[in-house]
Each structure stands twice: as structure tokens, then as C-alpha cells.
Queue: 2 jobs
Job 1
Amino acid sequence: MPDDTKPKITPEEAAKTHNAPIIRRPDDMSPEVARFANLSQMVFHPTPDNPTEPNAGILTYGPGGGFPLHKHDFAQVWYMLEGECQYGDQVLRPGDLVYMQDPHFEYEMRTEAGCKILFVQYPGPTTGEAPIYDGRFNQKEKPKLEEQDLER
């Protein structure tokens, strides 16, 4: 319960020095093909106008989908929404939260029946490296795994 004796701040006053929240819905985003032939609904991603915006959205892997072990210099968090996947020697299920500090590697991931992951990738506090959008999430056609850079 708010304390009515404290000074109140208005959104207009707050906006003079701070950014307002941005609200978007994943279902309003058209699915794009991502680098491991999965589908992504990118709700947020870095742009020239906002280079510090995170990569954030929903990743959907169909039956038999996944990716090989690879590395990143940015940080990220996943939240399992649906399905199951084998991730290294663990099975990720709905409700699992995975944090990957920078720099990090990702275990090989495979899903037999498919899975859906909410993810947020953001500039690494240690490395300063930003997440990569172009050429990762906005593919025009199904990418070839052998052409993917697994080092970043």
C-alpha cells in the first residue's frame, strides 16, 4: 500500500530523466527464421537508433530441432515455456530458468517433440559485447549449419 505522506511523482516528471517502459506482444511479431533453422518472434532487438536494446523474444524449435555447442561474448537468460529439450546432460522443462553469464558457451541442445523458449540476450557486463541480431534472427531462408559462426 502506498504511503500518502511521501511526495508523488508523475509519469511526465519521470520522463524528463528516465525512459518509459516499452510494451510489445510476441504474438504481434511475425515469425522469422533464425540461424539454427528455428523460428523466432523478436519482440526487441538492437537497432542503429537503439543499439543497447536486448535481443528478446520467443524461440520455437520444431521436432528434431536444436543446435551444436557454441560460444557467445554477451549474456543471456532463457525461460522454458513449452516442451522439453536435452541441453548438455540436463533436460530442460517448462519453468526452468537458465542464466548464461558473459562470456559463455551453450551446450548442444536437441528436442524430440519441439520446445518454446523465452529468451533475453543483453550486452555482457564483463565483456561489453552486444547480442547479434542481423544475420542471426532475420534469415531469408533456412540457414546452413556449416556456415554458422559458432565462436560468437
Job 2
Amino acid sequence: MLNNVIEVVAAIIERDGEYLITQRSATAVLPLLWEFPGGRVEPGESKEAALVREVEHRIGLTVVVSECVGDNLHSYDGHDVHITLYACQLPAGCQPHAKSVGQVRWVQSDKLDDYEFPPADQDSMYKLLNLYQ
């Protein structure tokens, strides 16, 4: 039997050699782990629209979505998570803030491994690093 597939999008936001990551809140599923900002795609919603909505909800800024830079399918017990990664830009001169996440951080690519990511996000991070190296 096939698992249910949850569609998720994530923003890859790079600035001066650092990537923006967010920490899940203490009450979230997989609490306090780190991830690229994003979230679930709602039924009938495009991935790009979901990404804009989810990032604004998490860091309070409307991103400009560029190209798809990769995707990953990860199997959990009872469901699969399909993550699509998009390169995104923040509005000029704007700083992200922790609107509905624990923290936001800018991290160099060689330091991302110092942060604990959920398994699906960890797989995506490794794919991303291969894409950008």
C-alpha cells in the first residue's frame, strides 16, 4: 500500500554566502528542529503560491520565487513528504523575523550540518549542497 504524499515547499534564500534557516516552534511537529522556511501546499494551490504564503507566515516577508532548484521524496512511517526547493529572494533592505517560528538564522553552507534538521529536510539539505558546490 502506498503512503499518503504530503506536498511541501521550501525557500532557499541566500545572502552573502549564507542561507536562511528557521527553527520550528516548541509546539510544532518535530519541535525545535531547523529547516528552510516553507510549509505545506494546500489542495488547489500552486507550489509557488504556497511558498509565498508559508514564508510570509513564518518570517513576515513576501519572497520573490525564482526557479526550482531541486526536490526530494522522504518516507516516514505512514506518509511520504515530497519537498520542492525554490531559490527565493527577500525584498531589498528587509530583514526576516521569527513571526511563527522559534528563531531565524543566517548560516554558511559549511555550517548547516551543525543544525539538526528533520529527516526529509536533511536529505534536501544534502541535495542542495551538491547543487551549489
